[in-house]
């Protein structure tokens, strides 16, 4: 994986464990999402929110926010509102 993708993935998975959120937060690692200038990218479903410029620390914060029912606004670059795509 490129651009700290592996490190971001591991930080997210570790925080999920710490938050005991394994029953409702799952991860799937992918390859390129076509957003090279936003790497590393995390997509949250079913909301369809796209987060870019993710670091391991941001990944940890993202999980904490999701557990609280919030979004990680500084990294959010697209919110799905229907059929639109990230620009």
Summary of the model, kept short:
This protein is of the alpha+beta class. The protein has helices spanning 5-18, 56-68, and strands at 42-44, 49-51, 76-78.
The oligomerization state is single chain
Low-confidence stretches: none
Structural classification: alpha+beta
Mean residue pLDDT? 88
DSSP E strands, number: 3
Please work out how many helical segments DSSP would assign. 2
Roughly what fraction of the amino acids lie in strands? 5-15%
Give an overview in words.
This protein has a three-stranded antiparallel β-sheet, with no helix packed on it. The mean pLDDT is about 90. It has helices at about 5-20, 55-70; strands spanning about 40-45, 50, 75-80. It has about 90 residues and is of the alpha+beta class. The chain has a single domain (about 5-25, about 35-80), classed as Glutaredoxin (3-Layer(aba) Sandwich), CATH 3.40.30.10. About 30% of the residues lie in helices and about 10% in strands.
What tags apply to this protein structure?
single chain, 87 residues, alpha+beta, Glutaredoxin, 3-stranded antiparallel sheet, 2 helices, 10% strand
Blueprint (SSEs and pairs):
Layout: H1 5-18, E1 42-44, E2 49-51, H2 56-68, E3 76-78
Antiparallel strand pairs: 1-2, 2-3
């Amino acid at each position: 994986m490129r651009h700290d993708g592996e490190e971001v993935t591991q930080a997210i998975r570790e925080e999920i464990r710490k938050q005991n959120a394994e029953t409702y937060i799952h991860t799937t690692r992918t390859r390129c999402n076509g957003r090279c200038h936003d790497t590393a990218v995390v997509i949250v479903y079913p909301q369809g929110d796209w987060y870019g410029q993710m670091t391991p620390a941001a990944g940890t914060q993202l999980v904490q926010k999701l557990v609280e029912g919030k979004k990680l606004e500084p990294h959010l670059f697209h919110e799905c509102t229907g059929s639109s795509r990230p620009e």
